[in-house]
Amino acid sequence: MSSPQPSIPPDTASLEALRQSLALRLREFLPREAVLTNEEDQRPYECDGLSAYRKLPWIVVLPDTIEQVGRVLKLCSERNISVVARGAGTGLSGGALPLSDGVLLSLTKFSRILEIDPDNRTATVEPGVRNLAISEAVAQYGLYYAPDPSSQIACSIGGNVAENSGGVHCLKYGLTVHNILGLKFMTMDGELISVGGKTLDSPGYDLLAALTGSEGMLGIIVEITVKLLPIPERAQVLLAAFDDIEKAGAAVAAIIASGFIPAGLEMMDNLTIRASEDFVKAGYPVDAAAMLLCELDGINEEVNEGIALVRELLLKQGATEVRVAKNEIERLRMWAGRKAAFPAVGRVAPDYYCMDGTIPRKHLAKVLTTIGALSRKYGLAVGNVFHAGDGNLHPLILYDANKPSDLKKAEELGGEILEACIAVGGTITGEHGVGVEKINQMCLQFTKEELDQFHALKAAFDPKGLLNPGKAVPKPARCAEFGRMHVHGGKMKFPELERF
Fold it and tell me: Which CATH number fits domain 349-497: 1.20.120.80, 3.30.70.2740, 3.40.50.150, 3.10.20.540?
């Protein structure tokens, strides 16, 4: 006699029946191996780079043609089933976190470079193409794609568009939104729409900018046309060490105030300097309280002039050491440590929680001091590594997920860091997006009326609200609850930091 089977609640049974029915329909036009319903196959999709949040997908689909994407969306729309788009999974805000009752649509098979147009300095690519692969493909024409997130060896261009990613050279060359010309995307109903093109401007509303940074909530991006730039004649890096982090912050402000805009201007504190040096052996000054990497590029004469100017400014601002990369190998080694900072810090503690806020540069020193005080308050170490030139902070909160209270403390500490950013006139994200990580802080950043406008924009693209629901833009009820819990008498914490 077979053992009795456990009873399944009717709602769970209905959901499972719906899942199996949908899987059958999907397999009518997708290969069987492109529709994943087994737990073992779905596990790789349960989280993104922000692995503190995990959820097993309901169904995962891996289409490889625009027609297939359209049919998936149309089928889900007809059945009122939500869809979450996923790229390479390197996101850091939980924006691609799956739903327990929705389809996870992976775009990793869209990995083709469709056209390279060196005369017009453009490339048209599918969303699954790796960021670095674009520059590698166009290098033969003396061109490259400027935005370079630290994860550029793995992150996909579609994800970069969804989060409006930046990178270490965004100070001079801008974010993703400044480096793309056109998109093709699909609505939830499966309609293919083109915005922009190969020209610098196009008629009508700027939907290209609206879609960039929209975190998969407005449409599914299936094709991107990017700008390409000539590879600079020369690029050179200066490394400056400081015995005080506030001096390093003041040096950043002094460089920008001089009117000279470096290609990149990055800062690391002592914790991240040591971790990166142990990991990469880049030759970093491990006794420094803070370190700046400042890259200059352009024609030889411009770089020569810039190096002399910046070196003088750094010494005047109290740098204890200023080093100039002697050759390309040394330049790349200096950057290797910075680009490996996140995984390097991961070797110091069992887990880390990466934040992403942006502040006016003049408040760098004050906010870093506040972060230090919060670190002591919560008893969790914080490593600071960030795009100092544009005020984009990436505090890395070290914790141990094996300790039940540690993640909660890390989340609370991260929330207070974001609140400090808001208090000085900054914002809760610079390039990682809101996702699920910062959705509560959206209630502090924006008024109810502003959030209503965000919802109205989403409704114009996605009337049923089926694309990536529950991410980025909070509902009024959530903000009301968050406000009761965290905002007292209409006042945020850190009133001493408020300037606006």
Answer: 3.30.70.2740
